[in-house]
Structure formats: C-alpha cells, structure tokens
Fold:
Amino acid sequence: MEKKLYTDAAFDYLGRSVGFKENITLGSNPNGTVLVLAPKAHAEAGAGGTAIAKPLSIAILNSKEDRVIFRPMVSAVAGPGGMAIAEPELIIRKRWEEEASESPETEGTKQKARIQ
Structure:
C-alpha cells in the first residue's frame, strides 16, 4: 500500500514559511524520511567584479524510501563588465549502495588503518 505525504510548506533557515506543495510517494515503507533542503544564497559585485553564490547541500540517505526536496533560492548580481555565477549544488549519498559495495577485504583494511 502506498502512503502519500503532502507537504504544504517548508521553512527557511529563519523560520519563515516557504510556500510550495509537494506530493511525495513513500511506497510501502511508512518510515521513509523526507528531507527538505532550501539553501539561500545571494552575492553582489560592483563594476568589473565577480559575484559567486554557490551553496552546497549534502544529503545522506539511509534507506531507499527516503526522499529529498531540494528548493534552492540563489541569486548573483554583478555590475557592468562583471561576472555573476549562481549555482546551487546537491550531493546525495546513498548509504545502502555504499554498504553493498564494501567487501569484507576492504572492511578489514579500514579497521587496520583505524587501529594504527
């Protein structure tokens, strides 16, 4: 049985409501986690300057049922002859894939390195 989660609003880092509506299917696992990431960055530069707004968000997911909502608010403004770069980035690490790729030999090597 699929469980639908309706998110009516999220909050930015100051606690203000960021209005949007998402319909997320969690699948058969009602214990799936929904992570809402809403990074906010703004950069300004004068004439001939460079404005770079590049927030980095990292999400580490523990199960296949986990979901990420990524809603960046990024802007960059540069004066005449300048350059503006607004580029949000999201990195998602899936722990279940990392655990599957680790062999017993690799794990033993890691333990030896930690001890020394």
In short: Helices lie at 95-101, 104-115. Residues 1-17 have pLDDT under 50 and may be disordered.
